[in-house]
Amino acid sequence: MSNILVAGASRGIGLGLVSHYVQAGHTVHAVARDLGRAAELRELAARHPERLVLIESDITDPAIVARVRTSLGGNKLDRLIVNAGIKQPDAPNYLEVSPADTARLFATNALAPVGLAQGLADALADGGVAAFLSSQMGSVALARSARIPLYGASKAALNSLLQSWAAQMGTLRFAVLALHPGWVRTDMGGDAADIGVDESVQGLAHTIEAYAGRPACAFVDYRNETLAW
Questions:
Q1: What is the maximal distance between C-alpha atoms in the chain?
Q2: Could you tell me the end-to-end alpha-carbon distance of the chain, in angstroms, rounded to an integer?
Q3: Which residues are CB-neighbours of 6 under 8 A, at least 6 positions away?
Q4: Residues 144, 155: Cα–Cα separation, whole Å
Q5: Which of 22, 104, 176, 195 could disulfide-link to 199, CB 3.0 to 4.6 Å?
Q6: pTM for this entry
């Protein structure tokens, strides 16, 4: 069975991915910012104590890499999945968002996810997958983020950093994926979204597994359809 890391595991898609991999028999290391507010994740861990390890950390905390390494205990990661992310701050005009809030958005959605993966790159198994929850709103070519431009820009930054990281590594040992999960009915996606968490999770997991053993850098959606960067 595989070792899986899911960062941003307390609810929604992240919690769904944790549940999917645990029920499939894998060992999951689940990162949540505040375990005290992650009742469903704690209940899942209580039901599967031998396969689900909880790690409390904000993804922007530099100590997160050391905490994950301690949890792994020297074992290799087969899948590294970063789901952590936050919304664009509310403001009538995105130019009115404070510099501090803008910096937090980009740090959480782009810089910290790639930093975590880079810090754990040597722990990723050959033929593994490093997957990051991006969005079609991060596609510069599709230009679909007019309603929430800062959020779209933060996901575009994530995509760009992933491309740069893959280029810096040269010959890849593992796949690097930017994933669009669909418009999902979560706290972030809202009740009017197209699909439920289960459908998104099943598609994402299938897509991630399709890239196992296929080192590449790709931007795809939960149906494994390629998106324009």
A1: 49
A2: 33
A3: 14, 17, 18, 21, 28, 29, 30, 31, 81, 83
A4: 12
A5: 195
A6: 0.95
Q: Are 134 and 161 in contact (CB under 8 A)?
A: no
Q: Please say whether the beta carbons of 131 and 208 come within 8 A.
A: yes
d(CA 15, CA 34): 13
Q: Which helix (H) or strand (E) holds 136?
A: none
φ and ψ at residue 170, rounded to 5 degrees: 75, -115
* Cβ(89)–Cβ(101) below 8 Å: yes
**226: three-class secondary structure by DSSP:** strand
Q: Give the three-state DSSP class for 131.
A: strand
Reported as a single tens digit per residue, the pLDDT across 78-135 is 999 999 899 999 888 999 999 999 999 999 999 999 999 999 999 999 999 999 999 9
- pLDDT value at position 183? 82
Residue indicated by tokens 């790709």: 218
Q: What is the 3 state secondary structure string of 58-97?
A: CCCCCCHHHHHHHHHCCCCEEEEEECCCCCCCCCCCHHHC
Side chain identity, residue 171? T
Q: Phi and psi (nearest 5°) for 5?
A: -110, 130
Name the residue type at position 229.
W
- Locate 92 and state its tokens: 């009538």
DSSP state at residue 34: -
Q: What are the backbone angles phi and psi of residue 43, rounded to the nearest 5°?
A: -65, -40
Q: What is the CA radius of gyration of the chain?
A: 16
Best CA proximity match to 179, nearest among 85, 83, 113, 106: 83
Enter the tokens of residue 225: 């359809």
